[in-house]
What does this fold into?
Amino acid sequence: MGDEPFPALEQIVSIERDGHLRTPVGKILCPGKERVAITFDKFLGQTKYPATLKNALRVLGKAYGYPVDIEFAYDGRSIFILQCRPQTKSSEHHRARIPKNIPKESILFSVKHDVPSGTTENIEYIIYIDPLRYDRIQSYSQKLTIGKIVGALNDTLEHKKFILMGPGRWGSNDINLGVRVRYADINHTKVLIEVARQTGNYVPEVSFGTHFFQDLVEAGIYHLPLYPDEKNVIFNDAFLQTTPNKLPEILPKYRDFKDTVKVIFVPEATNGKTLFIAMDGESEEALAYFK
It folds into this structure.
């Protein structure tokens, strides 16, 4: 078994011959000489393992109290469960009514597509990584430091209600596409917002939270993609740029990054108001406003 380069390959693939897919009769001794397609025909139809997996999902789901998602490996003889996570659903994720007639100066931003359903209320802090200033940073180490700042703010504001707004793709391995963070660096935010600012004719792609998707779902953290330069989208850049920055006060050792990393204490900046975000997944609309 240990000498086989592709254990149980015959259970996973079908062989293409004369324009038809055929289930292998025995072992595939020379996979490089056959035209094969991954079908899992034998694995699903001629082994005990689908029933084993079904039973494992049932047992694990009963233990967690929710349906579960698993990752597993198979070596032709045994199944190895690598990861198991409950598929929990937050009771707060209901369709929200988007308020009308909110004064434009009381709106922070709007989103017009790829919107979940739900409401986040009484947000006290906004952590904003300015995408254009982040893009202008040439130093690799400085961009890494911004990820560390986010993690430090996440810990410091753990018991406060805050949102994270940052460039492109949160958690990307390519530090030029987004702030490099781990889930533990963002796990206390209420909403994770990926801001795609247009530069010339280029609009960066967002990740839609895929780097942390399952963690976000389990924790009830919303994700929003924000395209400030799209037509009919509201983006109150003036508020984000001119409001006093609390970063030097909260994390003095990172004061040199205050032009790129902004921490806004909403009640102080809005005469006692807080930030509300209403999200309607059916109409694909979200509105962040001060109330």
Q: What stands out?
A: The longest strand covers residues 79-86.
